[in-house]
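Internal ticket #5521
Category: modeling
Description: The requester needs a full-assembly model to guide mutagenesis choices. All entity lines are attached below as received. Residue total reported by intake: 674.
Assigned to: D.W.
Attached entities:
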Amino acid sequence: VDPAKGARIGGMIAMGCSGTNAYRYGTIKAHVLSLTLVLADGTVVKTRNRPRKSSAGYDLTNLIVGSEGTLALVTEAILKITPLPKNPQVGLAVFASMDDGVAVAIAIMKSGMQLEALELVDGDCMQCINHSKLASDVFEERPTLFLKFAGSAQGVKEQVSFVQGLCEERGVTSCEFTGDKHRMDAIWDARKCLGNALATMKKHDSDLVITTDAAVPVSKLARLVEGSREIVKEQAGEQGWWSGSVGHVGDGNVHTAIVCPQSAKAEVEQLLAKIQRLALELEGTITGEHGIGLKLRDLLNEEVGTEGVDAMRKIKFALDPKGILNPDKVVRLEAGV
Amino acid sequence: VDPAKGARIGGMIAMGCSGTNAYRYGTIKAHVLSLTLVLADGTVVKTRNRPRKSSAGYDLTNLIVGSEGTLALVTEAILKITPLPKNPQVGLAVFASMDDGVAVAIAIMKSGMQLEALELVDGDCMQCINHSKLASDVFEERPTLFLKFAGSAQGVKEQVSFVQGLCEERGVTSCEFTGDKHRMDAIWDARKCLGNALATMKKHDSDLVITTDAAVPVSKLARLVEGSREIVKEQAGEQGWWSGSVGHVGDGNVHTAIVCPQSAKAEVEQLLAKIQRLALELEGTITGEHGIGLKLRDLLNEEVGTEGVDAMRKIKFALDPKGILNPDKVVRLEAGV
């Protein structure tokens, strides 16, 4: 699934995690075949056996994945593995604007061509990567598409040539495709270090890094990227806060990050709530892969309605009648509080 | 998803359906983005918006898909669509034994090469297709792999050549790959007519067609195919019942069918239960895509344990406390009955 560095299997299952491989291989949900659970009353349940597919009763596995520890303890997981991709290549395409990067990403998806990964990093985040010195090379500080290809030898060549054509149509300012192991690692490590690089934008140790996790249908991706930027840039710019965004664009999932003083926490959270509401307007979600926890419970009501949250609460109490498992996370134990 | 002819969206969602496209594109679960539900108390719930991925609360969507109408009425579904495959080709490979067909299917999967479809039909079912006259052509009555390819032009050529090589290694007796629309349709229609063709093997109108739906991990597929054949052939052969099997081998899912007089119903169901238990021994499921209904409730206890069924029952009563929605299907309303 390839989430940010430091993720562990247990947490990935608890949060319904994803990452740069999810666009091609699905989120952790697509990889969990079966779970062993301890329910609140101590009962041990194995959710299913390990065939690729099953219609045997209710889907307990997918109910538990992403339930953030509120429905059961997971003590064992059977994961599906995938053969290693053949003939890998990595691409790096730099654009004058985020719009161009989004347009290329959407054209790739509409073509039906299945790449291995499709990530879009804005100029601010590229600058952050350079500033952090966590990457092994220095990159242009402009909107950049990171791409991965794999498949049969000729198939990969055709994919690369097709994508290169799309990039050129959108006036790509520089473009590189490589199958060299060393260079592929250098490019991909730059994308992967971003999670840790954000912290290096703090002016003071006590500064906060606050991030959104909105995801929208791919047809609305351009509006999410543009809208998030408008919402953040105005206020963050005035206040001198650093901000940037990075998208798992193949999944319509965009993280906008702000680095700000602790005193600005409430203000920044309000700002980010505007982005989450924009995602809802665009028929999207407030959280593509990070989960609800405590902070997003009110917005969850806006996303699935109080009726949806009530249904979730009924399931919570069915499996955990005393509310002892990670209580009050995801859904509040009491309705209307 | 491409299930047997006659399936409708509502039924496909209720049963967690799949078909010949599931190996490449996933079961109906991978295609349902969101559902509108009417719960037992009349509450209307929309399970989620329509981004590709979400971590927003419990996964109500996947809980309802495959719940066979027992948890909620589905009144609306938002489905994900997929660009049409490019450069399609269809392959037909005839083998001396089912073992050879299974070996080729497994070698394809282990290679990581992603075909569009991978179906294995035994000699008896090929004979049934010819006998039914439902196909537009006549085919060899031996174990046959039906394959579909798509992708970039050169990529498809490489796939076909790779698969042809694997088939030859296993001594394929005849082998055809075609991109001709007319011939592709003729071959694929032969596979698709099988569901209806089975009924033409009845000797009397009152005869029954009874089918299993076992699915196992792909590594155990050969043992399921071989074991099912042993279980059925001995007894069916003695009794003069027709039997045959067809596998969505890319998903490890095999249907074994028997056509028998009504008087033999109980006996045949016992026979098929042996195959279902074999699937459980092989860490598989009693039902890959047809669901539990009334008949498989006892075996569901063997698959997920009474603890698993109890957990499902708790969820049933959480959402339908009076047990009014398709009562006693999937799980009995009363435990231990």
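Resolution: model delivered.
Comment from assignee: Residues 48 and 273 of chain A are 38 Å apart (CA to CA).
Ticket closed.
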